[in-house]
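Re: the request from the purification team.
They wanted to know what the chain is likely to look like in 3D before they choose a buffer screen. I agreed to run a prediction and write the result into the notebook, where they can find it.
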Amino acid sequence: MEALFESLGWWAALGFVVIATYFWRGLGILLSGHVDQNSEIFRWLSAVTYSLVGALTFKLIILPIGLLSNVPLVYRIGVCLICIWWMLRKPNNMVPCLILGSLLMMAYGLVELFI
């Protein structure tokens, strides 16, 4: 295997990654017709998925790393509350809410930069 990587380099690595990715996607497509989406396992997977997304979002807001850590916690929570309010006003339309949150964070950056 090491000789293969030495002779082909990054192309071999790319090929293995592509094969591994599309193998599992193809297997998922083949098996998707045989799966009951209302079963207990899918309800459990849905609950775990939503809890992971919620936990990661909470961590990103409360304990950010990188540039987001320079934004004060009060402003981050305020942007979240405004976005939640907007989402409750216009249900089933997440794109404007995401744009609003991005614009509010961008506005903070511009105010900090120029004032």
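For the purification team: The mean pLDDT is 88.
Please add any questions underneath this entry.
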